[in-house]
Amino acid sequence: MADGLAASQPEPPRSDAVSADEAQAGVGAAARPAYYAARSGGWRDWWTLLHPPYTAWHLSYVVIGAALAPQVNLTSLLATLIAFFLAVGLSAHALDELNGRPLQTRIPAPALVAVTVAGLAGAVALGAVGVARVGWALVPFMIVGVLLVAAYNAELFGGIIHTDLGFAAAWGAFPVLTAYAAQTGKLALAPVIAAGAALAMSAAQRRLSTPARTLRRRSVQVEGSMTLADGQVTALDQQALLAPLEGALRAMSWGLVLLAASLAVARLG
After folding, report:
1. Cβ-Cβ contacts under 8 Å for 188 (sequence gap 6 or more)
2. DSSP 4
3. Within a domain: 242
4. Is 114:162 a contact under the CB 8 Å cutoff?
5. 234, containing H or E segment
6. How many angstroms separate the CA atoms of 226 and 175, rounded?
7. Angle CA 8–143–138, to nearest 5
8. What is the pLDDT of residue 3?
9. pTM metric for this prediction
10. Which of 40, 135, 189, 265 has its CA 20 to 30 A from that of 11?
11. Residue 7 lies in a domain
12. pLDDT at 27
């Protein structure tokens, strides 16, 4: 997924700190392909590939969907979380990186292919276990899930799914509905409404992250100014434009994770 599919996890200590000279030159943090991206190379590439904030964000939808079930089975919830982590956190992001290297990692292409295949295989295997528990109603979700990973991230079918709406449906609404079905073997009105909320939240995520990615990955120079009614002039540069976008993304991602955690505690505590 281009966004990766994360209420944020706290960023780890970084060894790629920006020097004063770099900051004065207008490079450094904004030169990274994402605000959570580590310096390229080694294990840091795998951290970046996971899109930790966005992965956690979209896994929160799994918890929310499961928490709406009349009875929450912890084993099923954990299995669904792992399945979505494999399919989205690993497979989708690895496939996305194969398609143009948007994160600028040095992970070899064969490794990305292996991760894509292994992640999907693991997710399907966990889904098969879920079918044994709740019935064949879960099978359509398994099939659609695999198709979404392939079609969205590889931009198949002319990229018809690789849109703002496709992103919101695949990584917002779908996890909610799947998690509920994994608990109950059916759907109901409550998870459908919650899926609508996840769709809207993911659409907002996309609207914020798309210009942020453009600024980080495609812009070479940003110059401009804003004149206020009182005559005050404020300079507009790359960092000034990124700050509100990524600040909102951080806040929203943390908010979704905390909401999901609160529901898990309420239903399982």
Report:
1. 68, 180
2. -
3. yes
4. no
5. strand 233-235
6. 41
7. 85
8. 56
9. 0.87
10. 265
11. no
12. 43
All residues at 6 or more sequence positions from 178 whose CB lies less than 8 Å from its CB, including other chains:
62, 65, 80, 84, 141, 145
* Average pLDDT rounded to a whole number, residues 157-166: 91
**Has residue 169 been placed in a domain?**
yes
Using an 8 Å Cβ cutoff, are 57 and 198 in contact?
Answer: no
Between 64-68, 118-122, 217-221, the lowest mean confidence (pLDDT) is in 217-221
Residue 47 belongs to what domain range? 20-268
In sequence order, what are the residues at sequence separation of 6 or more whose Cβ sits closer than 8 angstroms to the Cβ of residue 167?
Answer: 1, 2, 3, 152, 202, 203, 206
Look up residue 36 and give its two tokens.
């959570």
| Radius of gyration for the alpha carbons in the chain, expressed in angstroms and rounded | 20
Which position has the token pair 């292919």? Answer: 113
- The residues that bridge with 227 in the sheet, in sequence order, are 233
Say how far apart CA 215 and CA 58 lie, in whole Å.
23
Q: Is the pLDDT of residue 20 over 90?
A: no
Q: Are 65 and 16 in contact (CB under 8 A)?
A: no
Which pLDDT value is given to residue 6?
37
Q: How many domains does the chain have?
A: 1
**Residue 184 contacts residue 134 (beta carbons within 8 Å):** yes
How much is the average pLDDT of 82-93? Answer: 97
CA–CA separation, 246 and 213 (whole Å): 10
The answer to whether residues 167 and 1 touch, using CB atoms and an 8 Å cutoff, is: yes
